[in-house]
């Protein structure tokens, strides 16, 4: 079967156009401006209703998402397609050990019982399904280690002065290895909080 020259030119044009669009969507180096534009555009949400909290490091989010989009899409699909108000507490596999969810439903911690922690192997997505809680965030570079990193638990403890935010069902937080976070702190009036934490493997 012969293919006309016009058809070949059309195929080449569409291919090159697609490559150009992909290159524009995924710059070699993300900047605060390009990352903020990508987050605001919201194509990554694919119908997900909660918004990412403004404190999230948008450059790191864009980098990690585009390094392994399949894992992130699965994580967001789990949030979007599950009835999180009815799902029972427990651990839920999403993509083997690459992505999994932990659902809790219980009393939040008093401030003094909470602790700063970071993770090296997994990114944390924190989303309050019902209720409210306070979550702290701070750069690991400004923190002092109080309990050394444990490879088995992918966890350490730190002491640091950070910013504190109120987590509600309208937003979710992302904490990368560069972020120390202090979750699960009680907000007055909210004695029971249902929460989803999705663990997403860090892409190298």
Protein topology:
Elements: H1 5-25, H2 32-41, E1 51-52, H3 58-67, H4 69-81, E2 90-95, E3 99-106, E4 122-130, E5 133-139, E6 144-150, E7 155-159, E8 163-167, E9 171-175, E10 179-186, E11 193-201
Helix pairs in contact: 2-3, 3-4
Mean pLDDT: 90
Q: Count up the domains.
A: 1
Q: What is the CATH H-level superfamily?
A: YhcH/YjgK/YiaL
Task: Extract low-pLDDT stretches.
Answer: 7-24
User: What is the CATH first-level class name?
Assistant: Mainly Beta
Q: Give the strand order of the largest sheet, numbering strands 1, 2, ... along the chain.
A: 1-9-4-11-3-2
- Counting DSSP E segments of at least 2 residues, the number of strands comes to 11
Number of helices: 4
The CATH topology is given as Jelly Rolls
Largest sheet: 6 strands, mixed
Helix content: 25-40%
Radius of gyration, taken over Cα atoms and rounded to an integer in Å: 20 Å
Q: End-to-end distance, in Å?
A: 45 Å
**CA-based shape:** globular
Strand content: 25-35%
Name the structural class.
alpha+beta
Helix/strand order: HHEHHEEEEEEEEEE
CATH architecture: Sandwich
